Fold this protein.
Amino acid sequence: MILRITQFGESILREKGREVESFDDDLHALAQNMVETMEAAEGVGLAAQQIGLPLRLFVVDVGMLPDEELDYTLDGRRPPIDLIMPMAVVNARLRTTGGTPLVGEEGCLSFPGIRGDVPRSPSVVMEYQDLDGAPHTLEAGGWFARVLQHEYDHTMGVLFIDRMETRQIRLLEAKIKRLKRANRGRGADITV
C-alpha cells in the first residue's frame, strides 16, 4: 500500500523516533508498505517519520548503484546486494568512522524539488535489528554510507537541510520557506 509522505513543515519530521519493541506481522507489513511507497516515489530511502510515525525505523534500497559505488560488509561478510535490498533497519545506532567529510548532492522525499550539497562522513558503522529483531552490524562507505546517514538522521528528527552549510541554505531559502508555509500545521493521517 502506498502511504502519504509527510512534507517539510509538518512537525513529525522533527520528532525523535521511539524504539521499536514489537517485531511482529504489523512491523513486517509497515516495512513492506514503506518500501512500496519509497519505490513509487523513486527514492532510495524512507524513514518512519516521513510516513507520520515517530519510530526508529527506516528502509533503504541502494541496489541500483553500480558495484564500484557499493562499499559495504554486513556482519563481516559481503553478500550480493540484491540479497539484502531493500533493507529494513530497526533501532539503529550509527557512528561515523572518521575521515574528511565528503560533500555530495542530496534530495529528500519530504522536500520535493529541493536538492543541495551536504557534507557527510565517508564511512559509517551501523548496529541495528532486522524485522525479526535479530542484531546486525553494517559497515558502509561512499553513497551507501550517505544514504544510511540521511535516513538515520530522520529517525533522530534531523533533516538534511540541518547539515547543509550556511551558503547552501541561503541559495535554497526561498524554496524551503514556501514548502514550510504550505505544510505548517498539516498532520499525517496515521496514528500509533
Q: What stands out?
A: The mean pLDDT is 93. The chain is about 30% helix and 25% strand. The domain at 11-104+119-158 is CATH 3.90.45.10 (Peptide Deformylase). The helical segments are 25-40, 81-84, 142-155, 160-163, 166-183.
